[in-house]
Amino acid sequence: MSSDESFLQDVVAALDRVGLEAIVVGTVAAVLNGAPVMTQDLDLLLRDTPKNREKIGKLSAALQIAAPVEVSELSRSITLLGGALPIDILFDALPGGLTFEALRSRSSRVQIGDSAATVAALADVIASKQAAGRPKDLAQLPILRETERVRAALKGGRSV
Amino acid sequence: MLEARQRVAPLVPDIDPGDLLLILQSLLRPIGTGRRFFLRRRDSGGYVF
């Protein structure tokens, strides 16, 4: 297991320990769906509830990293810094009107060590990046779309 | 890998053969087998695995 996989395993195990339901989204979700891409952080989507806000603090403690910090006054996301890599926590929905519930209904469970992560579908990762429209998101779209097509061809024996 | 490439390539003829190989290598390598996918920024401004 690489250090990247170990980091993911530690985060997923910590989510389990503190009872925090999260969906892995963004580029790491694309990686866990088999896409050959790279990123600098881990994005998690949570429901914004007082209980979950409390659990985020417990998650920081479980991972032995700094308390969460607001990324921007304009954004509801927060970032956990001080670990091997930044963890961005997003709330309730992704760009493109993708709600937590909708994403979860199409998600899959991916085993990472002894724990399983809830991972957004590749089609949803693509839709969110397209809607976000930032250059770094748009730059990944061609390889993500090709990965989706190749995966479908592998599974179903035909192109999409 | 080669078998998968032979089977899939005709179904996605517009995908560059190099890209197809890269994608298949990634798709067929499960998590937990030593994959690297995080870039870390160095103080110098560069990035490393």
Provide a descriptive summary of the structure in words:
The complex is a heterodimer of chains A (160) and B (49). Chain A is an alpha+beta fold. Chain A has a single domain (3-141), classed as Beta Polymerase, domain 2 (2-Layer Sandwich), CATH 3.30.460. In chain A, 48% of the residues lie in helices and 20% in strands. Chain A contains six helices and nine strands; from the N terminus they run αβαβαβββββαββαα. In chain A, the strands form two sheets. Chain A has a seven-stranded mixed sheet with strand order 3-4-5-2-1-9-8. A two-stranded antiparallel sheet of chain A has the order 6-7. In chain A, strand 4 and strand 5 (87-91) form a beta hairpin. With 49 residues, chain B is mainly alpha-helical. Chain B has one domain (2-48). Chain B is built from two helices and two strands; from the N terminus they run ααββ. Chain B has helices at residues 2-8, 17-27, and strands at 40-41, 47-48. Chain B has a two-stranded antiparallel ribbon. The interface between A and B is medium-sized, with 35 and 27 residues.
Short description:
The complex is a heterodimer of chains A (160) and B (49). Chain A has 160 residues and is of the alpha+beta class. In chain A, 48% of the residues lie in helices and 20% in strands.
Which labels suit this protein?
heterodimer; A: 160 residues; alpha+beta; Beta Polymerase, domain 2; 7-stranded mixed β-sheet; two-stranded antiparallel ribbon; 6 helices; globular; B: 49 residues; mainly alpha; 2 strands; elongated
